[in-house]
């Protein structure tokens, strides 16, 4: 990344980390005794999470810091329990919610989008809106507005952003420079053009592909959002239970599938999930995946080539820059214990503080959800050494508010149905029209089944 682009990106980073709901520059408020009984008696709260490796280690460090600091002052102890991948923890949550045994729920949970609807529709949710009613002094203006919006459902703020990310484009800058490609590929057409320029094989005779990809719900939301549309109605399900695909009637699905198929027909696309190991091995020129992979990729590449990071690849030149917010949040549960609810909120506020978010971002590559992180020296030093970390925040600043992730009840089935139908189009040489017909039947069917089983 040249110096001019770096300073432009850094400026955008500062903008996004200060463009929260009120753009407050005040320091984080001191922990408030939002529950009058806090500090009088000891209380232990259970925290379910899905963080592994370095993210898990940093999360454990933050929990320890809380327990030995503000938690000790308020007699709060957090017991962190790893519950497997997000899909595993959501399955456990849903099982407990079905059994109606609130005591088996955690007090705080690290939740991703797959559990958003079931959490919102349960009678055990202690939402962020609920907590703010009891703690009116808490300043939400320091929390990124776009990140907050990702965890708002049907007008209710469900949880606090924690591990905030977006999708970006990674590229082997060393390979592309050698091929005479001096700027990051920006569109599908740019990816197709790489085929004639990059080497066919690696030094050990492994095939090199321009791009790997198999669209799913999040990536389809990005591509359709870039074209000004929504995948499903009710603003991608953010305003209530989605009932149908809307990307068909506005033509955005057809436009995306046509461009995606053209890239495959040009020999530029390998139909598979993005493989970071293949990218590190030099077998993939361009990779699109979560910005949370920056730290991992820098470590794995270990100087073998220069890692380029740029905005998420666009369908074509007319498409808008940007990608939806992703990652996870912290939600709380109401187990009819006011002390535990107050303690849970203190812990959630600590995890969203500027210092905690800066430490977590440095360790993981996630984007800080708190604007105050921009002033934490540890985070400033990271951006100085690795400007790649500034790209996701700059992209968030440039992404329109209308580009939001998809929220549907049958989230996992929906995810795989999109992936399978788009893959079938390519591997079985189906027409775009036939693919759309199949997607309408299967995806609308999933929504109909869910809504019939879960009437609002």
Secondary structure: elements and pairs:
Blueprint: H1 3-18, E1 43-49, H2 53-68, H3 70-73, E2 76-82, H4 86-99, E3 108-111, H5 116-121, E4 125-126, H6 128-134, H7 145-150, E5 152-153, E6 156-157, E7 160-172, H8 173-178, H9 188-194, E8 209-213, H10 217-226, H11 233-237, H12 252-265, E9 269-271, H13 276-280, E10 284-290, H14 294-301, E11 307-310, E12 325-333, H15 338-351, H16 354-364, H17 377-385, H18 390-398, H19 411-427, H20 432-453
Parallel strand pairs: 1-2, 1-3, 8-9, 8-10
Antiparallel strand pairs: 3-12, 4-12, 5-6, 7-10, 7-11, 7-12
Describe this structure in words.
The protein is of the alpha/beta class. The protein has two domains: 222 residues, D-Maltodextrin-Binding Protein, domain 2 (3-Layer(aba) Sandwich); 208 residues, Periplasmic binding protein-like II (D-Maltodextrin-Binding Protein, domain 2, 3-Layer(aba) Sandwich). 45% of the residues lie in helices and 14% in strands. It has 20 helices and twelve strands. Strands 1, 2, 3, 4, 7, 8, 9, 10, 11 and 12 form a ten-stranded mixed sheet that branches. α2 packs antiparallel against α16, α9 packs parallel to α12 and α19 packs antiparallel against α20. The longest helix is centred in the last third of the chain and has 22 residues. The N terminus is likely disordered.
> Mean of the pLDDT scores?
91
Largest sheet: 10 strands, mixed
* The CATH homologous superfamily of the largest domain: Periplasmic binding protein-like II
The fraction of residues in strands falls at 5-15%
Shape: globular
What's the CATH architecture name of the largest domain? 3-Layer(aba) Sandwich
Provide the CATH top-level class of the largest domain: Alpha Beta
Unreliable segments of 5+ consecutive residues: 1-12, 14-27, 29-35
Q: Could you estimate the helical fraction of the residues in percent? A: 40-55%
Amino-to-carboxy terminus distance: 50 Å
Tally of structural domains? 2
Structural class: alpha/beta
Please give the radius of gyration in angstroms.
22 Å
Helical stretch tally: 20
Question: What is the CATH T-level topology of the largest domain?
Answer: D-Maltodextrin-Binding Protein, domain 2
Counting DSSP E segments of at least 2 residues, the number of strands comes to 12
